[in-house]
Amino acid sequence: MTPSIYALEFRYASLLSSLFMPNTPDIENGTDVLTETETKLEKPKLYKVLLHNDDFTTMEFVVWVLEYVFMREEPEAIAIMLKVHNEGVGIAGIYPYDIAYMKSQKAMNLAKTREYPLLVTVEEE
Questions:
Q1: Is-contact 49 95, C-beta < 8 A?
Q2: pLDDT computed for residue 37 by the predictor
Q3: What is the pLDDT of residues 43-81, one digit of tens each?
Q4: What does the alpha-carbon distance between residue 27 and residue 5 come to, in Å, rounded to a whole number?
């Protein structure tokens, strides 16, 4: 007697799942038990995005970058710009590494297209 097409499909599916999903519990025999594992997530390390002063980038452009890229309100952007101007460096924001790197690259690309030598660096907090 030949097995039905459904039995063959089930055996084929079982074979495939055992090959490609070896950690899957065996539900045919009911012998494996799934246990719940507790995963602890750590907060990501934070990084500072620093704007560096130069003699060519305009104050207005720095304020615009702080508003556009770093989502700062105008008074806060002006305060950061003045800190960069007076002290040589200022913190534009503090983010996880991927976001900090992306924002620094975006700010420098915007400066580059307008031919400003603005330097934006990322530093661990």
A1: yes
A2: 79
A3: 999 999 999 999 999 999 999 999 999 999 999 999 999
A4: 21
For residue 55, with 0-12 CB atoms within 10 Å meaning exposed, 13-18 middle and 19 or more buried, which class applies? Answer: exposed
Q: What are phi and psi of 2, to 5 degrees?
A: -90, 145
Rounded to 5°, the CA angle 61-67-73 comes to 125
CB 111 within 8 A of CB 50: no
Predicted confidence band of residue 39 (pLDDT cuts 50, 70, 90): confident
β-bridge mates for residue 120, sequence order: 51
For the segment(s) 46-124, the CATH number from 3.40.50.2300, 3.40.50.1700, 3.40.50.1980, 3.30.1390.10 is: 3.30.1390.10
